């Protein structure tokens, strides 16, 4: 019955007000027991939060975490060429060992950035799940199902792999791991596969997560082939249930925004990736105004190139204003919500709020940096000025994952060395 | 005749290739004496650069450094409302002491971000110059001349202040401080003031720096009043000499890009500020393709909200691709150039290149972060993944300004405390 008190700091309340309070964590249940003044005496152990802001842990709503291995491997190319010329040839050489090493590197980076939960679509997901179990984060994981370029039977096998993973790993790591069925996108998975496997995923009662409306180029073929906009096609396939979440949602028209609002399916906005691949600007303010749940994701490190939700929040505010042609759009409070409650709701993980009874998933952000001085508005600082390196402590499910910048659940040097070796070997195989 | 060797690291060459080499700094002359293997024995002192990349110090081409006092004070508003409702009323309450405290805070932040040179336009510039002298950076400083809302004689007085500062401070701080004549913009300074004072600035042989074509709203009145685009009007006023540099250049048409190329005047791109104020997207790739010298600036911290050139480089790449609708535009190597040689050339400071005989203005970037692993491409890492907090050491003019994250020329705690006190008092006066 161990309890931990975070003392001397300020906390970010669910309504985004900030006040001075200690936070008492019940490490047995993994939940916040109490928030209030002077909780040190009530705790078995204390952790210093002076000159710091205790925030909900950040939630990364869309990632391919093992792609850290390809960080900086190929930049400055549009999505299609980048995938076909660089990423897919390299990914064809991935081994389960490489994926586990890349995942650990990404988890290390996320813990160091105050991220406590994420959604991930990739391959060899049992290896990613193993890494998540050790690292201590919360995750919504799924095998990325692709049918393009495959015979129908091979595509069915891939979908079966996706279903089996979703079935077997849901609730793993003492409940920290949840799963989803993850068809890659509307253009890379056949109608037949959707028709057969969406009902099977519904039987498992897991959400469905896919890329949708990321580039203009992927909208046209769907309209040509099916005679409707992509999200109308998605709805016809049964893909827009309230628990489902779509990555990107850049090229959505008014009818599709309405459809998202009606169905309650969520969008995970990935501004850095959308900018870096010149995919476009998602209409985030319009989506929010329509009542659509919007989360925030980094996408893979190869198109970002980091996994910091604080960076992503700043990017979201910046590009959201350009998209709306309005400096008041996608304001500081909005992007802090996107990175916490927005993502948590979108991917269906129980996190994002600091209140008694909520999961103790939190980050403690050091406020003493010159770049965070003066302190007129701490929500503004989170949105526009704070960086991953300002995060002092990271706690997930009541467990301390990082203390004073030292990650406790992974050996940082070992993780970096293994990932470097796997990345080097991977690129050698791909270029052989 | 003290010499300092940076040992065990890799260096970023002027052609943006990276190789292993030590750097020998002659602290007497402030210049790089030698670059090559095993220079430790040739030096009086060594500084560790293992697992690090030695880069040119970053150059911030456009700033209002004392505006750190207003960081996070007013966000999420368009330029006009933000200036008239929040920034100008607060600035009206600025004292020379407040400006010096804000400048020191900004200099502290810049040193910690590896910045060694910057251009600054503000008020009480003699106090900014004092802070620069102590902090040890290089700067191009000027008093911001404004005539809008003033009687002509008061505007002339302001211009005289600008001229006097440019005259008296050029070459201060052992030559690290250079000056410029800095009329605020084409719409906030009258034609009469330009006509009288541009020739006087030319007599002093200092560059002219102003804001230009930042928002669409500032183009229309110039076209209405003068019948030509803003940069044609600027040329007619004598403002586009090769040593002159314009901040922003967002809303420039083809004729204006051609004019910049012909006249050799430079543009300092401020992507974060342009996004945050929804001013628009500067056509950076088009400017570069036309042969225009482009630098990179943070603008003031109130519209950014940090002063890191690494953040700014990432922003420039991201929004540059959107502006060009091309993921290949404004590539990693381009933004690293913008942040180093581009800015140095634009603002006329002798920095930005690591080669023997060049000023020893450099930053040493730690490469061991999870977010900088693996190391496929270090130029990509500088552009897309490295953060201010990765900078270990900062050296300017041969002098060590920061060693192992400790700033040696300023007392960080003292600077933060003073700036906080001044910022709090300033806001109280403004809101009284």
Automatic annotation (TrEMBL), chains A, B:
Catalyzes the deamination of 5-methylthioadenosine and S-adenosyl-L-homocysteine into 5-methylthioinosine and S-inosyl-L-homocysteine, respectively. Is also able to deaminate adenosine. Zn(2+) binds at residues 62, 64, 211, 299. Residues 54-400 form the Amidohydrolase-related domain. It is an enzyme of class 3 (hydrolase). One of its GO terms (molecular function) is 5'-methylthioadenosine deaminase activity. Binds 1 zinc ion per subunit. Keywords: Hydrolase, Metal-binding, Zinc. Substrate binds at residues 91, 184, 214, 299. Its EC number is 3.5.4.28, 3.5.4.31. SUPFAM superfamilies: Composite domain of metallo-dependent hydrolases, Metallo-dependent hydrolases. InterPro entries: Amidohydro-rel, Deaminase_MtaD/DadD, Metal-dep_hydrolase_composite, Metal_Hydrolase, MTA/SAH_deaminase. This is 5-methylthioadenosine/S-adenosylhomocysteine deaminase. Belongs to the metallo-dependent hydrolases superfamily. MTA/SAH deaminase family. It comes from Halovivax ruber (strain DSM 18193 / JCM 13892 / XH-70).
């Amino acid at each position: 019955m161990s309890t931990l008190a975070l003392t001397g700091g300020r906390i970010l309340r669910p309504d985004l007000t900030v006040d001075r309070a200690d936070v008492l964590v019940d490490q047995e249940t993994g939940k916040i027991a109490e928030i209030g003044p002077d909780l040190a005496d009530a705790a078995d152990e204390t952790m210093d939060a002076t000159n710091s802001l205790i925030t909900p842990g950040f939630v990364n709503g869309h990632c391919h975490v093992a792609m850290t291995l390809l960080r900086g491997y190929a930049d400055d190319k549009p999505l299609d060429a980048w995938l076909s010329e660089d990423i897919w040839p390299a990914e064809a050489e991935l081994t389960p060992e490489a994926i586990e090493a890349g995942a650990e590197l990404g988890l290390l980076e996320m813990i160091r950035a105050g991220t406590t939960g994420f959604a991930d679509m990739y391959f060899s997901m049992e290896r990613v799940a193993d890494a998540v179990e050790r690292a201590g984060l919360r995750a919504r994981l799924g095998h990325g199902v692709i049918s393009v370029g495959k015979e129908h039977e091979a595509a069915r096998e891939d979908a079966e792999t996706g279903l089996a993973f979703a079935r077997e790993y849901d609730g793993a790591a003492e409940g920290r791991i949840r799963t989803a069925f993850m068809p890659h996108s509307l253009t890379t998975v056949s109608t037949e596969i959707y028709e057969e496997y969406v009902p099977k995923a519904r039987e498992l009662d897991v959400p469905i997560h896919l890329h949708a409306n990321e580039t203009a180029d992927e909208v046209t073929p769907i309209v040509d082939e099916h005679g409707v906009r992509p999200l109308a096609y998605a709805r016809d396939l049964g893909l827009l249930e309230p628990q489902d979440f779509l990555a990107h949602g850049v090229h959505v028209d008014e009818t599709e925004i309405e459809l998202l609002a009606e169905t309650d399916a969520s969008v995970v906005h990935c501004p850095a990736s959308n900018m870096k691949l010149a995919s476009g600007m998602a209409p985030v303010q319009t989506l929010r105004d329509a009542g659509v749940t919007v989360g925030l994701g980094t996408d893979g490190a190869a198109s970002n190139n980091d996994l910091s939700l604080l960076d992503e929040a700043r990017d979201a505010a910046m590009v959201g204003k350009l998209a709306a042609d309005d400096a008041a759009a996608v304001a500081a409070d909005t992007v802090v919500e996107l990175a916490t409650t927005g993502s948590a709701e979108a991917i269906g993980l129980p996190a994002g709020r600091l209140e008694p009874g909520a999961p103790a998933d939190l980050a403690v952000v050091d406020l003493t940096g010159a770049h965070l001085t003066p302190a007129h508005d701490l929500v503004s600082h989170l949105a526009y000025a704070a960086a991953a390196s300002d995060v002092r402590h990271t706690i997930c499910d009541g467990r301390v994952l990082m203390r004073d910048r030292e990650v406790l659940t992974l050996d940082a040097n070992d993780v970096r060395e293994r990932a470097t070796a796997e990345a080097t070997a991977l690129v050698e195989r791909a270029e052989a």
